[in-house]
Design a protein that fits this description.
The chain is α+β, with helices and mostly antiparallel strands. The chain has one domain. The protein contains one helix and four strands; from the N terminus they run ββαββ. Bound molecules: zinc ion. The site of zinc ion has 9 residues, from loops.
Length: about 100
């Protein structure tokens, strides 16, 4: 088994991502994660997150945004829906 590198910057803003507990969150719609820890970009100036506020409202009439995530364990990446600025922050793993 190769060692997992948790030192990674967000490809959208270049800010180092935070370790985050994935399995304490449930998004429904079958969007579950088989890994327990992922990396999430919590930069409020991240273009992905800033753009999300407009695109989510335009497409779904929903207030919210998305944050970029990457799972070093299986190479999976995508976005997590957030309803407000502090959403998901409670599960950041402090080191
Ligand atoms: Zn970012």
């Amino acid at each position: 088994m190769t060692e997992i590198n948790w030192d990674k910057e967000c490809p959208h803003c270049g800010v180092k991502m935070n370790k985050w507990w994935a399995n304490s969150n449930e998004f429904g719609d079958g969007l579950g994660f088989c890994t327990s820890v992922m990396l999430v970009c919590f930069n409020d100036a991240c273009p992905m997150y800033v753009k999300g506020w407009n695109s989510l409202f335009d497409h779904y009439r929903r207030i919210g945004s998305v944050r970029y995530f990457y799972s070093p364990e299986d190479g999976d990446s995508g976005v997590l829906p957030v309803a407000h600025k502090d959403a998901l922050r409670g599960d950041i793993i402090k080191e």
